Each structure stands twice: as C-alpha cells, then as structure tokens.
C-alpha cells in the first residue's frame, strides 16, 4: 500500500520538475517507510511506500530484467506467487521480493492484457521506455485511487491523492460547477469529475495510455448483475459463495506485518472475522467504535462476536465534540468536499487499528453485492412505472434534495450548469442491461458509482491517513463474478436482505448475529446537529463568506439554515462540508477562520 505520483512530458523538460518529489512528500501518510523518485526517459515515477510484502528487497520503482519497463504500484497483488511461477515457466525471472515486482515482467510477456492476470487491489503507473508510453491502470472496483491532470506546460501529471496532484504547477484550479451540483445531490463527486476543472479521477477498471499520439482510455473489465444463475439450486449457490469467500479471505491474510479486522457486530464484518479466525488461529485483533447514543452504539454486539470468535478486541467511543476537527481532517485528505458523516466513524476506527496493526480486513462491498441496502426494498415497493433513474433517485436518502436545490440556488450559479435539474444517474442506468430486472440494474449502478465513489473512497482515505492497509474480501473479483449471476430475488426475499450471505454466515456464526437487524456504519448526526454541532453549522453557513460564495441566494440559504429541520440533517452537513472545504483554503490560500478550534480527543477502551 503506497502513494504513487508521476509525470510524463514528451520532447521538453517538465514544468515543475520537483512536482513528483513534492507529491510523494505530501503522501507520506500513505507510505511512511520509504520514498523514491526516478526518471525513466520522458517519465518521472515516484512512490511513498508502506511495506507490507517484501520488507527487504521490495523497493520500487520495479523494473523488468531488460530494464526497459518500470512501474510503481499502490495496492496488493494477491496472486503474485502464482504469477511468479507462470512467468518462470515462460522463461522470465522476477527480481525483487514484493508483489509489485511481477508487474513489469507480466507486461513484457503479455502486453496491455497483463492486467487481466492480476488479482488484487491496485493503481499502477507503468512506463515503457522503448515504446515511449505511460500506462495508468486502476483495479476492477476502484479500491485504489488515481488522479490526473494536464498541466498548462504540457504532458500529464498523476498522483494517488488529489491534494498531492494539485501541487503540480499549471493544473487548472477553477471549481467545476457541475461537480458542485453532483456533490450536493450525492454527497460525493463521482468519477471522472473532481471539484477542479483541471483534475480528473481515473474510473475503476480503466487503462489509460499516454504517448506522443495523445491519451486513450478503455474499460478492461465489466460484469453486470444478470441473474444468470437463475434455476441453479440455492444450496449449490450457497456452497459456491462459501468456498469463494473462504479463498478470498485466505488470500488476504498473507502479510509480513501485523494484521487485524474491523468488527461492527453486523453480518458482514462478523463473517469475515469468523472465517479469518478459523484460518489464523489465536491472536487476531479486532476493532470497533461506538457512540454515547444507544441507537447507534454496537459495542455489545461487537464484543459478543469477538468473544464467540476468540479475538483480541479493541473499542473506542466517538463523541460529538470531535466532529469539527475530524471533519477538517477528512477534507484535507479527500482534497474536495465529501459529505458522508460516517467518515468520522471510519477515521476513529482506523486510528484505533493503527495502534496495533498495519493491515485490516473489512466487510465492505457486501451491501452492493448481496442486495443489502434498504433503498432496494424501497425501490421494489415503489410504483413500477416511469423512468427507472428517476424512481431510483427518489428512494435515495442523500444529499440536498432537488426541491431544496431549486429553492436555494443562486440564479447565476444555476445558469452555469448545462442542465438543471439533472438526474446524473440517468446516463449510468443507460449503460446497464435493459433485460435485467430493475433491482439488478440499480445494483449495477451502485457497483459502478456508489461503491467506488462513496464507500471505497472513504475506506482508502481514512485508512491511509493512518498508514493502515484495508483489504475487502467481499470484493474479490472471482467472488463478484459469481455473485453477480445470483438472481436479485434470491438475495432480497420477503423483505429480508442478503439471504444467500446469511445462509453462508449461519454455518459460522450464532443465530443472534445472523438474524440481527442490519445497521449501517453511521453517526448520530441528527442528534449531534440539534445539540453540540448546531452553533458550528449555523455560524459557518450563515457567515458572510458563505453567503457571498455565489452558489446560493443569500436570503434563501439563510431561511433554509435557520429553519434547521431534523429531516434535513444530511443536507445541512453536506452544505457545511462544502463551505468548510473553501474555508480551509483547499481551493487556494486559506481564508480567515476565527472559530474556536476544537481538540479532537477519541476515547478508547
């Protein structure tokens, strides 16, 4: 797990020659163990490395035996040992001890199709000196991020995090109004957009080629939810999911540094912990967080699973007075507005884990793969007429509602949008299989949008802020390729979600855990906003700087914020994080901020 950065400029010296080193320095939290910057022809590649595999002899950039191919890799290649054997059988020798070192020889042997052989999470930058071409590649789900931009001085720059990329001179920092509109709708800015006009995210499962002829992109992997296993006996499906999940967890237990697991007490993380414990034996560390609000606190459930599985459990309490400072830290690591308050909980969990381990397993991805979200039930219950994209957007409990945006937007900001109102999900639904059911198409959209742009973004940044590597066995691509053939009605039956996964879990967990009501990782936002956080939110949104920002009509924004209705809790937090991003100066020089700082103190036990 690392932070990578680089630049390629053909036929001229790069503008901002120190960019790659500065970008790596800005990402030391991602890779505190070693830093390297090397020039390879027209390309400069850099890495800030967190050593997980290949503690000795695993330095990057990695090169092939001929010396013509060099690469830096952020992530883990879980099948690197099998790939070494494959390459040896073809007469190629992999030098270097880390998993990343298989990549240059794999490319030399298979060309651009090398990515099809990889099992893992990764963002790869590979430069072929002989052919003068740079490849940027993201893994199938976008677990590992990659940002890029074209500086005014020419060429292309890239980095694992947006703040690191924006240290490159000449990248346009103008705020993109479409990105702001998307953020206010969904609380995230979906790929390929970023908050800046001049910077982009490389979407999941994408290979981008940069050479003297220009820039080309292609999607190298896709797998729709298609119900192709319809008619297969349920017991056979459960057996196969069980076997694939056990293998995925076994693959992710390979580490040369201490390893643990996140544990909420819910189905997904509990199942991962139970299976990991069966493989590892004693000594597995588990981590959970809780709140003073009983409705959101899962300490009792997590401790029960930890006791059942025999893990070394660690717990911490998150309190509302921490939200201000942690919110600021979240924005600094995201580099753009991000409106999911659950990131506060994730920050706390990974900070706790960092005291004991370097790698953690998580249960993330299960909701998207096994039909776990409550909105899927709302979609099924809705009237099955009209445009599917509109119906699905209507059941999303998210962001600033369309009627509120219409009421508070400043006319001049609205005029800067190519289309308003706009359902940004419509284009995504248009790319799904029309022959699939409505629910399967909604799950496909979530797998290519919600999963990568909301959930995996949060996991990566909050974990790497604390130099912890998260691994998600539920998103093993072999498992996912099978699971996406399961008919949606088998996963969501009689209003009960994750039926197939629950049948797997019943083999390893007590009934009280398997049958427990689903509870998503969340914070008691409504309670916090009406008490501790209310003065902070109100003062920030009604400040002179906010009212003059240009996004909103001042009188309308003042009216909305002053009303402070509980059902608008997520909308208020979404607006606050946008304004706070500006106030932190992440769009330029910091603005004056006279608010009393809050000391972030987590309470561990």
Q: Determine the structural class based on helices, strands and strand pairing.
A: alpha+beta
Mean pLDDT: 91
Radius of gyration: 24 Å
Q: Helical region count?
A: 27
Number of DSSP-assigned strands: 18
Portion in helices: 25-40%
Q: Which of globular, elongated, flat, extended, rod-shaped describes the shape?
A: globular
Strand order in the sheet with the most strands: 2-3-1-9-8-10
Instruction: Report the sheet-strand fraction.
Output: 15-25%
Distance between the termini: 28 Å
Largest sheet: 6 strands, antiparallel
Name the poorly predicted regions. Answer: 592-605
In short:
This protein is α+β, with helices and mostly antiparallel strands.
Please tell me about this protein's structure.
- With about 600 residues, the chain is of the alpha+beta class.
- Helix 6 packs antiparallel against helix 19, helix 6 (about 235-250) packs across helix 21 (about 500-505) and helix 17 runs parallel beside helix 18 (about 450-465).
- The longest helix is centred in the middle third of the chain and has 18 residues, at about 235-250.
- About 50% of the residues are buried.
Please write out the topology.
Elements: E1 2-8, H1 19-26, E2 34-40, E3 43-49, E4 62-63, E5 69-77, H2 80-89, H3 102-110, E6 120-128, E7 133-138, E8 147-149, E9 156-159, H4 162-165, H5 177-186, E10 199-201, E11 206-211, E12 214-219, H6 234-251, E13 259-262, H7 267-280, E14 285-291, H8 299-309, E15 312-318, H9 323-334, H10 342-354, E16 359-361, H11 366-369, H12 374-381, H13 388-395, H14 402-408, H15 411-415, H16 426-430, H17 438-448, H18 450-464, E17 469-471, H19 477-483, H20 488-491, H21 499-505, H22 511-514, H23 525-529, H24 534-541, H25 544-547, H26 554-563, H27 569-583, E18 603-604
Parallel strand pairs: 13-14, 13-16, 14-15, 16-17
Antiparallel strand pairs: 1-3, 1-9, 2-3, 4-5, 5-6, 6-7, 7-11, 8-9, 8-10, 11-12, 15-18
Helix pairs in contact: 2-3, 6-19, 6-21, 7-8, 10-18, 17-18
């Amino acid at each position: 797990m690392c932070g990578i950065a680089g630049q390629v400029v053909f036929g001229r010296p790069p503008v901002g020659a120190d960019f790659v080193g500065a970008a790596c320095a800005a990402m030391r939290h991602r890779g505190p163990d070693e830093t390297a910057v090397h020039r390879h022809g027209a390309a400069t590649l850099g890495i800030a490395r967190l050593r997980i595999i290949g503690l000795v002899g695993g330095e990057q950039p990695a090169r092939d035996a001929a010396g013509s191919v060099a690469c830096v890799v952020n992530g883990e290649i879980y099948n690197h040992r099998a790939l070494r054997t494959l390459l040896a059988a073809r007469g190629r020798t992999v030098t270097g001890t880390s998993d990343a070192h298989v990549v240059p020889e794999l490319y030399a042997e298979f060309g651009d199709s090398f990515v099809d052989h990889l099992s893992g999470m990764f963002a790869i930058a590979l430069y072929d000196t002989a052919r003068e071409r740079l490849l940027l590649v993201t893994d199938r789900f976008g677990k590992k991020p990659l940002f890029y931009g074209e500086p005014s001085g020419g060429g292309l720059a890239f980095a694992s995090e947006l703040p690191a990329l924006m240290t490159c001179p000449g990248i346009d920092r103008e705020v993109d109004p479409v990105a702001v509109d998307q953020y206010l709708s969904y609380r995230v800015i979906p790929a390929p957009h970023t908050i800046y006009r001049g910077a982009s995210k490389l979407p999941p499962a994408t290979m981008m080629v940069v050479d003297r002829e220009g820039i080309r992109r292609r999607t190298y992997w896709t797998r729709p939810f298609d119900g192709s296993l319809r008619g297969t006996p349920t017991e056979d499906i459960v057996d196969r999911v069980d076997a694939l999940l056990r293998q995925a967890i076994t693959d992710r237990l390979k580490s040369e540094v201490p390893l643990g697991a996140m544990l909420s007490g819910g189905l997904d993380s509990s199942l991962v912990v139970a299976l990991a414990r069966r493989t590892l034996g004693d000594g597995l560390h588990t981590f959970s967080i809780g709140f003073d609000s009983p409705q959101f606190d899962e300490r009792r459930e997590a401790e029960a699973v930890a006791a059942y599985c025999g893990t070394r459990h660690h717990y911490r309490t998150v309190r509302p007075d921490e939200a201000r400072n942690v919110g600021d830290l979240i924005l600094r690591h995201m580099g753009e507005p991000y409106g999911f308050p659950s990131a506060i909980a994730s920050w706390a969990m990974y900070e706790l884990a960092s005291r004991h381990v370097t790698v953690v397993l998580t249960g993330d991805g299960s909701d998207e793969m096994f039909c776990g979200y409550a909105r899927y039930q709302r979609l099924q219950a809705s009237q099955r007429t009209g445009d599917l994209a509109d119906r699905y957007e209507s059941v999303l409990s998210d962001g600033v509602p369309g009627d509120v945006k219409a009421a508070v937007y400043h006319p001049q900001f609205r005029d800067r949008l190519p289309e308003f109102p706009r359902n940004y999900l419509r284009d995504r639904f248009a790319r799904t299989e029309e022959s699939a059911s409505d629910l399967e198409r909604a799950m496909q959209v979530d797998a290519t949008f919600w999963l990568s742009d909301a959930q995996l973004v949060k996991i990566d940044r909050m974990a790497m802020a604390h130099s912890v590597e998260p691994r998600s066995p539920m998103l093993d691509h072999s498992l996912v390729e099978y699971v996406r053939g399961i008919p949606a009605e088998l996963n969501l039956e009689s209003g009960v979600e994750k039926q197939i996964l629950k049948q797997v879990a019943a083999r390893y967990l007590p009934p009280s855990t398997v049958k427990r009501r689903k509870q998503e990782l969340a914070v008691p936002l409504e309670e916090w906003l009406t008490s501790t956080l209310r003065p902070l939110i109100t003062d920030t949104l009604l400040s002179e700087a906010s009212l003059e920002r240009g996004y909103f009509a001042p009188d309308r924004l003042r009216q909305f914020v002053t009303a402070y209705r509980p059902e608008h809790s997520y909308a208020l937090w979404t607006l606050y994080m946008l304004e706070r991003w500006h106030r932190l100066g992440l769009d330029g020089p910091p603005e004056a901020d006279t608010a009393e700082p809050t000391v972030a103190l987590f309470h561990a036990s």
